[in-house]
Design goal:
The complex is a heterodimer of chains A (150) and B (642). Chain A is an alpha+beta fold and 150 residues long. Chain A is built from 7 helices and 4 strands; from the N terminus they run ααααβααβββα. In chain A, 46% of the residues lie in helices and 12% in strands. Chain B folds into 5 domains: 97 residues, Glutaredoxin (3-Layer(aba) Sandwich); 211 residues, Rossmann fold; 84 residues, Ubiquitin-like (UB roll); 89 residues, de novo design (two linked rop proteins), CATH 1.20.1440.230; 84 residues, Alpha-Beta Plaits, CATH 3.30.70.20. The chains are: A alpha+beta (150), B alpha/beta (642). Chains A and B meet through α2, α4, α5, α6 and α7 of A and α2, β9, β11, β15 and α18 of B.
C-alpha cells in the first residue's frame, strides 16, 4: 500500500481527526496490517500525534501492527461455541499449526485469532478461515479443513 | 426517485407500491441472514434464480432474499408465499424439485417440511411450528418478509408511517410523552426508561444534541441486534429519526461493530435510500425538521458497548469509559446532550407511535413492558432468535420454543445477560423474564443472550470463561477491574486445573465485593456476576474441584482422564485411527489402551467410540485403572473360533 492510497482514504473522510479510527480500519482492511509508515502518514495528514495513533492501534482488536499470514483462522470462542467444545477445537488447531492466538507462523501461511462471537451459534463450534465459515467443528474435523489451505 | 414531500405523498406512494404487488403471486423468501449464509443460503439463492429462469417462470415468481428468520438451527430456510409453505435445511440440489413441484404443481415436498419431534407430524406453515407458535414477533416479525435492501418492501408493510404521524400530527412533546407512557426500557442491558433518558436530553440547555444507536453488540452468543440491522434497517432509522424529533436533535450516529459487515452494508444502503426518499436530510416530509445519520464502525472493543466509552470512540479516541457524575444524556458526545439507545430499543419506537403506548403496555409485566428478543443458544435443540412478551417463563422459552436439551441430556443452567450476567439453575426455571425479575435472581437481562447449559457444562469453567473474557476486555483504566479481575482469573484457573486451595472461595468473594463497589463503569461493577451467581447456585461444584480435585461435569481438562474399558472394547480401530495424538495403543483384535502420557484429552476417542460399545470412559477425581497386561489384550472372536 503506497502513500497515495493512504491519502485517498484520508481524503474520503475529509481529513477530520475524529475519523482516525475509520481511516485506520480502512487501511487495516485493505492491507491486513498497519505498517509504521502508514501510521506516520496518517499522523501527519490528520495532525494527530503518533502516540495517540499507537494507543488506538493497540487498544482495538481489529488492528494489527505485524503482518498477517495468507490465511486468517478465526476460532469462535463465544459462549455458545465454548459450551459446545470450542476449547478443544482451538487446542487442536494450535497443535496442528504450531501457533497460538495472535500469532502468525514463520512461513506466513496461517494467522490464528480467537473471536468472541460470529453469530452463527447454531453451527457451533465454528471456525472461520478467510471469511468462510466451517460449522459443527470437532478436533478431528479441523485437520481435514486445514489441509485444504496452501 | 423524487423526494416524498409530505405524509399525503407518502401514502400516495405507498398505494402505488401496493397496487403493483399481487398478493397472490408466488414469492419465495429465502433467509440470507449471517447464520443461514454460513450454512449455504448464498448457493441456494443462485440455484433458485437459475432454476426459475430455466423453467421459464421469471415473470411469475418473485424471489426475495430476506434477513434472519430466527430459526437458525434449521437454516437455510425458505418460505413460499402466499401459502406460507416453510422448507428447512435447503440445499441447492433441492431447488429444481421445489420449483417444479411446489411452485408449478402446488405440491408439497414432505421431506423438506418441519417434523414435530413429539408427534412426528409434518408441519407446513411457519406459524404452526412450535418454535414460532409460542413467540410474539412484533419487532422481529417483519424480518422474514422484506428484502432489507429494498425501501419499497419496508414501505409496503407500512414503513415510515410512524415517522409521518410524529412529524405531522404530533408535537415533539407528545412523542416524548407517548414513549414515556409506554415505559419502554433500554433493551441493551441497563433497562433504563428510554422516555426519561430522552426527556433529560430534551430539557438540557445545550442547543446541539445527538441521538446514537448502540449496535456494538459484543456479548458472545447474542446476535439479535445484528439480525435487526441486517434484516430491517429502516425500522431502526425510523425509530432513531422519531427520537431525534422528540428531543430536538439534528444529527445521529450508528455505532456498529466492523465484525458485522452485512449489517454495515445494509444500514448504509438504507441511509442512502432514506435520504433519496426524503426520510432523512432537510425538511423531512415537509415538516421543517432536519436530520442526518452517520455510520461509525467499531474497531473491536467490548467495553465500547458501554455508553460513555462508545461516545469516546465516536470522537475518534480509545474507547475508555468515564465516571458518570453527569449523565451522558446531559453531557455526552463532544460534551453535548446525547441519547444513546440500543438497536432493539429504537426498533420498538415506530411500533409505539403507530399503535400507541396503551397497546404497548398491555404486553409484559408490571415493570417490563413489550417484548424482548432473546438469542437462545448453547445446548438447546432449536438454536435461534426468539421474541416473547416480557413475563414469559424461562421454562416456556427453553422447552416450548427451544425444544429442550438435545441428546437426552439433563438441563443444568441457563446463562442470561452476557458476560456480566449470571447463571440460573433448574429450580428457578419458572422465573418470568423481565428486567427486575432477572436481577433479583442474581443475573440480568443484558442484551438478551440466553445460553443453555447441560450436565456436561462445568459451572466453575463457565465462571472462569467469563472472567477471562472480561479480563481481556477490561480497558485498564480502573484498578478493581484491571487488577481484581486478573487475580480472580488466576484463582479460577487454578481451581479448574486442580490447584485450588482452601480459602480460594473466600478470596474470590472479597475481590468480587471490591469490584462491585469500586469499579468505574458497568463492565467492572458487574464483572463478578458470573462467579457470584455460579457460586450461589453451584457451590458444591467449586468445593469438589478444590477439595476432591474432581470436575463433576467431567469437563475440566486437567481433572479428567480417558481410559478404555477392556471388557467393552471390541478392538475396532476407530478411536485408534482418529486419535490426533496417536495416544491409543492396540491393533486389530487387540484391545486398545490409552497412553496417558501422550493423551491430550481432546475427547476424540470418546466421541468416536460407537455408542453400542461405549468402551471409552471419561473419569474425574479417581485414578485411571492400570492397563491390563499385554498378553490379555487379544480378543478371540466367537465366530472365528472354529
Amino acid at each position: 500500500m503506497d502513500n497515495g492510497r493512504i491519502d485517498q482514504i484520508i481524503d474520503k473522510h475529509h481529513g477530520e481527526s475524529s475519523s482516525l479510527i475509520q481511516v485506520l480500519l480502512e487501511i487495516q482492511s485493505e492491507n491486513h496490517w498497519l505498517p509504521k509508515y502508514a501510521l506516520e502518514r496518517v499522523s501527519e495528514k490528520l495532525q494527530v500525534p503518533l502516540t495517540r495513533i499507537r494507543h488506538i492501534a493497540t487498544f482495538y482488536k481489529a488492528f494489527s501492527l505485524v503482518p498477517k499470514g495468507r490465511h486468517e483462522i478465526h476460532i469462535c470462542v463465544g459462549t455458545a461455541c465454548h459450551v459446545r467444545g470450542a476449547t478443544r477445537v482451538l487446542d487442536t488447531v494450535q497443535d496442528l499449526t504450531g501457533i497460538r492466538p495472535g500469532e502468525t507462523d514463520l512461513d506466513l501461511k496461517f494467522s490464528l485469532e480467537t473471536v468472541n462471537c460470529l453469530g452463527c451459534c447454531a453451527l457451533g463450534p465454528v471456525m472461520e478461515i478467510d471469511g468462510k465459515t466451517h460449522g459443527k467443528m470437532a478436533p478431528v474435523k479441523t485437520a481435514d479443513v486445514l489441509k485444504n489451505y496452501e | 426517485m423524487s423526494r416524498i414531500n409530505s405524509p399525503a405523498e407518502l401514502e400516495e406512494f405507498r398505494k402505488g407500491i401496493l397496487s403493483k404487488r399481487d398478493p397472490n403471486k408466488p414469492c419465495i423468501t429465502l433467509c440470507s441472514g449471517s447464520a443461514c449464509h454460513a450454512s449455504g443460503s448464498g448457493d441456494v439463492a443462485a440455484s433458485l434464480e437459475e432454476e426459475i429462469k430455466k423453467q421459464g417462470l421469471s415473470a411469475e415468481v418473485d424471489i426475495r432474499r430476506t434477513g434472519c428468520h430466527g430459526f437458525c438451527e434449521r437454516g437455510p430456510i425458505i418460505v413460499i408465499h402466499p401459502e406460507e409453505i416453510c422448507y428447512f435445511q435447503i440445499e441447492p440440489k433441492d431447488v429444481p424439485e421445489i420449483i417444479s413441484q411446489t411452485i408449478k404443481e402446488k405440491k408439497i415436498i414432505e421431506r423438506l417440511l418441519y417434523t414435530d419431534p413429539e408427534t412426528h407430524e409434518k408441519i407446513i406453515h411457519e406459524s404452526d411450528i412450535p418454535f414460532y407458535k409460542h413467540q410474539e414477533r412484533l419487532v422481529f416479525g417483519s424480518n422474514g418478509s422484506i428484502d432489507p435492501k429494498s425501501i419499497d418492501d419496508y414501505l409496503a408493510i407500512g414503513g415510515y408511517a410512524a415517522l409521518a404521524k410524529s412529524l405531522s400530527g404530533m408535537s415533539a412533546e407528545q412523542v416524548l410523552e407517548e414513549v414515556k407512557k409506554s415505559n419502554l426500557r433500554g433493551r441493551g442491558g441497563g433497562g433504563f426508561p428510554a422516555g426519561r433518558k430522552w426527556e433529560g436530553s430534551r430539557d438540557a440547555p445545550e442547543k446541539i444534541k445527538y441521538v446514537i444507536v448502540n449496535a456494538d453488540e459484543g456479548d458472545p452468543g447474542a446476535y439479535m441486534d445484528r439480525a435487526l440491522l441486517e434484516g430491517n434497517p429502516h425500522a431502526i432509522l425510523e425509530g432513531l429519526t422519531i427520537g431525534a424529533y422528540a428531543i430536538g436533535s439534528h444529527e445521529g450516529y450508528i455505532y456498529v461493530r466492523q465484525e458485522y459487515p452485512l449489517a454495515v452494508e445494509n444500514i448504509n444502503i438504507a441511509i442512502k435510500q432514506a435520504e433519496d426518499y426524503g426520510f432523512l436530510g432537510k425538511n423531512i416530509l415537509g415538516s421543517g425538521f432536519d436530520f442526518i445519520v452517520k455510520v461509525h464502525q467499531g474497531a473491536g472493543a467490548f467495553v465500547c458497548g458501554e455508553s460513555t466509552a462508545l461516545m469516546t470512540a465516536l470522537e475518534g479516541r480509545a474507547g475508555e469509559p468515564r465516571p458518570k457524575y453527569i449523565r451522558s444524556n446531559i453531557k455526552g458526545l463532544w460534551d453535548r446532550p446525547s441519547v444513546l439507545n440500543n438497536v432493539e430499543t429504537w426498533a420498538n419506537v415506530p411500533l409505539i407511535i403507530n399503535k400507541g403506548a396503551d397497546w404497548f403496555t398491555q404486553l409484559g409485566t408490571a415493570g417490563s413492558k413489550g417484548t424482548k428478543i432473546f438469542s437462545l443458544v448453547g445446548k438447546i435443540t432449536n438454536t435461534g432468535l426468539v421474541e416473547v412478551p416480557m413475563g414469559t417463563s424461562l421454562k416456556d422459552i427453553i422447552y416450548k420454543i427451544g425444544g429442550g436439551i438435545p441428546g437426552g441430556k439433563k438441563f443444568k443452567a441457563v446463562q442470561t445477560g452476557g458476560p456480566s450476567g449470571g447463571c440460573i439453575p433448574e429450580d428457578l426455571l419458572n422465573l418470568e423474564v423481565g428486567f427486575d425479575e432477572l436481577t433479583d435472581a442474581g443475573s440480568m437481562m443484558g442484551s438478551g443472550g440466553m445460553i443453555v447449559m447441560d450436565e456436561d457444562t462445568c459451572m466453575v469453567d463457565v465462571a472462569r470463561y467469563f472472567i477471562n473474557f472480561l479480563t481481556d476486555e477490561s480497558c485498564g483504566k480502573c484498578v478493581p477491574c484491571r487488577e481484581g479481575l486478573r487475580q480472580m482469573l488466576k484463582i479460577l484457573t487454578n481451581i479448574t486445573e486442580g490447584k485450588g486451595k482452601e480459602g480460594d472461595i473466600k478470596l474470590l468473594e472479597e475481590l468480587s465485593e471490591t469490584a462491585k463497589e469500586a469499579a468505574l463503569c458497568a463492565l467492572g461493577k458487574s464483572a463478578p456476576n458470573p462467579f457470584l451467581s455460579t457460586l450461589r447456585y453451584f457451590r458444591d461444584e467449586y468445593e469438589a474441584h478444590i477439595s476432591k480435585k474432581q470436575c463433576p461435569a467431567l469437563s475440566c481438562k486437567e481433572l479428567i482422564s480417558y481410559h478404555i474399558d477392556p471388557a467393552a472394547c471390541q478392538a475396532c480401530m476407530i478411536c485408534l485411527k482418529k486419535c490426533p495424538a496417536e495416544a491409543i495403543v492396540g491393533g486389530k483384535n487387540k484391545i486398545h489402551v490409552v497412553d496417558q502420557e501422550k493423551c491430550t484429552k481432546c475427547g476424540t476417542c470418546f466421541e468416536a467410540c460407537p455408542p453400542r460399545f461405549g468402551a471409552v470412559k471419561k473419569i474425574s477425581g479417581e485414578p485411571v485403572p492400570s492397563p491390563i497386561p499385554e498378553e490379555d489384550r487379544i480378543i478371540i472372536r466367537k465366530s472365528k473360533e472354529k
